[in-house]
């Protein structure tokens, strides 16, 4: 452990910057190991600070070497500046001056993948959140916005493509015969949006004509061998641009928009102004190598980064505590976009099951924090599901409270009022409130309070007076640093359904309808509906109108009725999930007690009806058939017994499979998609149902299913079907599973993104020596510790390997801890994210819990990065 531990940054300590940088002029003399960066910063004291004599303190990093510093052309002797804890401090400055800094950096050996680094044969950057300080000394904070001009100097034969933000304004030769290119970005921006790329890249060109008839040049760059895989991303980009004009009235501003794909990237993608940089896994797509899920992900990430041009770049964050200002809003925007492009219900079900599985778990664990955190040690640790996904739910609730039209007025006002500014979540809410007249004072607590509220509903119907009452209570459990909680303003969308399954109307607040939004504001409230002609079954929290855990004592009959009759598609799925969860909870209990498994026949009957009804949307049927995941059941459990959950799921799946083998076989055959592969909603739906049916059928005793799996693996002309067959073979211990895995690798070993899928599936394969198998994978020629995608594939796959990861001797946890310790030095952001499974230690059953805790303690004893230190120390607190 280090002598002194890193300290926390607090929201309440925010102060405006003492200096501003009006213009930033950068020159990069690119070299693999010795890149020289020269900056001219046109600075002045911030008038908002009043008269001040504060010294100039610029952020830097341990990995940059200061060559020299000058003020208005005068080279400072070493007594006139100091380097303290990575900061460059200059005590005496004028009110206005040009600061020149020369730094030396080593991109080739930058394994942290922030700042300027090398990926394959190219140079690229990642500056969010605090990467720019690893390039040059700067006021590296988002409320310092500057106009950037960037000159790139390189050897043109090796780096013919040289890109930065904005427009190319000049190009020529230096005295030494190198090429220089100048880029100018007229929009002031914080340093985190700076980007630079240089390499021998191929490009795909296109044009988008905006609503005001301006032609925008679109370019996607990749390494040469990948350029045939960007067509889908280009089309998705054009759809995004059109959608943002139509839905939010937002037009693109520069004359050129560029995207670059890189292989080594810590996250999904980055919205640098005019020059987005993408993890190649979120950009490249072709039918042969990419699954349906991955196509949809490419579309949504392209949209997400594009939408940031307004929600993030034109209007940015004042400080990093406000991260959800741009991320929550932009996730909401990309979710709405995908919903409009495909199926609204399917998209909502997918987003909500992700939220309920992963964000709810985060909110219940040691890293729980509000959507607007009030403190952090390392900001990279706060790019979380809470900030992104729960943040998006907050924006969605505002949309529900205001309605479509007023919400649009609010977003118009927000963009107009704050264009070119760095603002706060409060500013966002104020614009929504001012434009709509809806009071959001109480609602704002959603930003500052962590934890998932539990909402409990009871009801009564009075036959005599035809009155129906819903009594709703809320309670938010304590989270770290927030022992007591206040009540929240929770919009609860409710529908009423008769016992025959029809919509049931009622009077409520001078409105007669069968669908209402209730405003829960107190800890307990009763809502009264009148002129209700028969006893209703409530359809609660329709379309998941708030990110809460809902409790209502539904009978199995009521759930079956909602499953077949609710007009809200989301709640039909929700009812099915509840039925399956009820069934699985009993089975898990039986497994833990060592009792024999037994199930009710209701779920089987419900599934049978579903499989035999040909009028249903195949995508919905597929979603409903998917059993609650191991991860979701773990989130629901009070104490997690991974083996019991796995056993219960397996038993239920096999039981359903055997009871309905004929139906699954039938559905499997009916939903084969003919013709050329297309990633449209309809074909994706059919493939999804077909492959879900196969995953059941293959669990049954019907031997023909085994043949079908092997045939599909061999015959498939697209990755969705091929990989589905392979996964099913592995999960059901198909007799040829091993041969299929080998054949798959041989077929695809030249395609890294496919190899990653193979790595993940192989690492998740259960066996007596799962750990040995994973260790062998890390020695495999296709593995590379420098590449985050590969690390995540293997360790992520292993995390789902119940027998390997949760081995009772603790060897699985020890192995993960070993990797975290190695990566802590090389790539702290990646190492920190790999800690997530270990943060759940308190919820595991005691034998496993102690083993996991020991590994956290072992990690904590190391010399740790801020990233890993924060997660591990908070987990043990
Ligand atoms: N702003 C990016 C997004 O939401 C997130 C991101 C990309 C990021 N790369 C990063 C955050 C590196 C932290 C570190 O799309
Ligand atoms: Zn984002």
TrEMBL record:
Q: Which UniProt keywords apply?
A: Aminopeptidase, Hydrolase, Metal-binding, Metalloprotease, Protease, Zinc
Catalyses: Release of an N-terminal amino acid, Xaa-|-Yaa- from a peptide, amide or arylamide. Xaa is preferably Ala, but may be most amino acids including Pro (slow action). When a terminal hydrophobic residue is followed by a prolyl residue, the two may be released as an intact Xaa-Pro dipeptide
Report domain Aminopeptidase N-like N-terminal positions. 110-193
Keyword field contains Hydrolase:
yes
Work out whether the entry's keyword set contains Acetylation: no
Give one GO molecular function term.
Answer: metallopeptidase activity
EC class of this enzyme? hydrolase
Q: Which residues form the Peptidase M1 alanyl aminopeptidase Ig-like fold domain?
A: 451-553
Q: Locate the Peptidase M1 alanyl aminopeptidase C-terminal domain: which residues? A: 557-877
Listed GO biological process terms = proteolysis
Q: Which cofactor does it need?
A: Zn(2+)
Report the EC code(s) recorded for this entry: 3.4.11.2
Task: Cite the InterPro entries for this sequence.
Answer: Aminopeptidase_N-like_N (IPR045357), Aminopeptidase_N-like_N_sf (IPR042097), PepN_Ig-like_sf (IPR038438), Peptidase_M1 (IPR001930), Peptidase_M1_dom (IPR014782), Peptidase_M1_pepN (IPR012779), Peptidase_M1_pepN_C (IPR024601), Peptidase_M1_pepN_C_sf (IPR037144)
Record domain Peptidase M1 membrane alanine aminopeptidase: where? 232-446
Q: Which family does it belong to?
A: Belongs to the peptidase M1 family.
Q: What does this protein do?
A: Aminopeptidase N is involved in the degradation of intracellular peptides generated by protein breakdown during normal growth as well as in response to nutrient starvation.
What name goes with this protein? Aminopeptidase N
Q: What is the lineage of its organism?
A: Bacteria, Pseudomonadati, Pseudomonadota, Gammaproteobacteria, Oceanospirillales
């Amino acid at each position: 452990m280090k002598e002194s531990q890193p300290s926390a940054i607090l929201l309440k300590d925010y102060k405006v910057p003492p200096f501003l940088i009006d213009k930033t002029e950068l020159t990069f003399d690119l070299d693999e190991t010795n890149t020289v960066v020269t900056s001219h910063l046109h600075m002045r004291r911030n008038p908002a600070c009043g008269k001040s004599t504060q010294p100039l303190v610029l952020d830097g990093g341990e990995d940059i070497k200061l060559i020299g510093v000058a003020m208005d052309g005068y080279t400072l002797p070493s007594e006139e500046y100091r380097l303290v804890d990575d900061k460059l401090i200059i005590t005496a400055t004028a009110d206005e001056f040009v600061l020149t800094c020369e730094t030396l950096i080593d991109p080739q050996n930058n394994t942290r993948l922030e700042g300027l680094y090398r990926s394959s044969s190219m140079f690229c950057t990642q500056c969010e959140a605090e990467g720019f300080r690893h390039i040059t000394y700067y006021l590296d904070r988002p409320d310092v916005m500057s106009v950037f001009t960037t000159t790139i100097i390189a050897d043109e034969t090796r780096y013919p493509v040289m890109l930065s933000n904005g427009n190319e304004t000049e190009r020529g030769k230096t005295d030494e015969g190198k090429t220089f290119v100048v880029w100018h970005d007229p929009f002031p921006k914080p340093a985190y949006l700076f980007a630079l790329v240089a390499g021998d890249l191929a490009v795909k060109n296109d044009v988008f004509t905006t609503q005001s008839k301006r032609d925008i040049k679109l370019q996607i760059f990749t390494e040469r061998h990948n350029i045939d895989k960007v067509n889908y991303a280009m089309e998705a980009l054009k759809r995004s641009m059109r959608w943002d004009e139509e839905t939010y009235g937002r037009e693109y501003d520069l004359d050129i928009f560029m995207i670059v794909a890189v292989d080594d990237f810590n996250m999904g993608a980055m919205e640098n102004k005019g020059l987005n940089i993408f993890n190649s896994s979120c950009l490249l797509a072709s039918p042969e190598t990419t699954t349906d899920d991955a196509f949809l992900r490419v579309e949504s990430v392209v949209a997400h980064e594009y939408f940031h041009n307004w929600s993030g770049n034109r209007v940015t964050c004042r400080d990093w505590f406000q991260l959800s200002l741009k991320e929550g809003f932009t996730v909401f925007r990309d979710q709405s976009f995908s919903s409009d492009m495909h199926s609204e219900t399917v998209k909502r079900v997918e987003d909500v099951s992700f939220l309920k599985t992963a964000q709810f778990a985060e909110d219940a664990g040691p890293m729980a924090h509000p959507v607007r955190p009030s403190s952090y040690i390392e900001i990279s640790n706060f790019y979380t599901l809470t900030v992104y996904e729960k943040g998006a739910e907050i924006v969605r609730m505002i949309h529900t409270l205001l309605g479509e039209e007023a919400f649009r007025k609010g977003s118009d006002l927000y963009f107009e009022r704050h264009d070119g500014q760095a603002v706060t979540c409060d500013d966002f809410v104020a614009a929504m409130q001012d434009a709509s007249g809806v009071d959001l004072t109480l609602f704002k607590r959603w930003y500052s309070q962590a934890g998932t509220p539990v909402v409990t509903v009871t009801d009564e119907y009075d036959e005599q007076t035809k009155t129906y009452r819903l009594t709703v209570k809320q309670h938010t459990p304590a989270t770290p640093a927030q022992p007591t909680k206040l009540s929240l303003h929770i919009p609860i969308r409710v529908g009423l359904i008769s016992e025959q399954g029809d919509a049931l109307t009622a009077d409520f607040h001078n409105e007669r309808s069968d669908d209402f939004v209730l405003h829960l504001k107190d800890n307990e409230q009763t809502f009264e509906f009148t002129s209700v002609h028969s006893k209703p079954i409530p359809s609660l929290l329709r379309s998941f109108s708030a990110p809460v855990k809902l409790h209502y004592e539904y009978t199995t009959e009521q759930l079956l009725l909602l499953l077949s009759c609710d007009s809200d598609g989301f709640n039909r799925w929700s009812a099915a999930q509840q039925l399956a969860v009820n069934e699985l909870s009993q089975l898990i209990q039986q497994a833990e007690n060592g009792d024999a498994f037994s199930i009710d026949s209701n779920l089987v009957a419900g599934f049978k009806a579903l499989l035999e009804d040909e009028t249903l949307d195949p995508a919905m049927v597929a979603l409903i058939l998917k059993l609650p995941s191991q991860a979701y059941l773990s989130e629901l459990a009070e104490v997690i017994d991974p083996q019991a959950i796995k056993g219960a799921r397996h038993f239920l799946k096999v039981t359903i499979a055997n009871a309905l083998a004929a139906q699954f076989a039938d559905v499997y055959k009916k939903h084969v998609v003919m013709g050329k592969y297309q990633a449209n909603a309809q074909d994706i739906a059919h493939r999804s149902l077909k492959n879900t049916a196969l995953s059941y059928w293959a669990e049954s005793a019907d031997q023909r299913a085994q043949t079908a799996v092997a045939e599909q693996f061999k015959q498939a002309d697209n990755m969705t079907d091929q990989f589905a067959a392979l996964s099913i073979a592995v999960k059901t211990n198909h007799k040829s599973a091993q041969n299929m895995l080998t054949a798959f690798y041989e077929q695809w070993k030249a395609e890294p993104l496919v190899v990653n899928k193979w790595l993940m599936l192989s690492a998740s394969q259960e066996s007596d020596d799962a750990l040995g198998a994973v260790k062998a994978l890390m020695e495999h020629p296709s593995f590379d510790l420098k590449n985050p995608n590969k690390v995540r594939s293997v360790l992520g796959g292993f995390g789902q390997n119940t027998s390997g990861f949760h081995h009772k001797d603790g060897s699985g946890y020890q192995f993960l801890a070993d990797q975290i310790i190695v990566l802590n030095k090389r790539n702290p952001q990646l190492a920190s994210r790999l800690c997530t499974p270990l943060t759940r230690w308190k919820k595991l059953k005691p034998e496993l819990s102690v083993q996991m805790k020991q590994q956290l303690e072992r990690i904590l004893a190391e010399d740790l990065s801020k990233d890993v230190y924060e997660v591990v120390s908070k987990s043990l607190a």
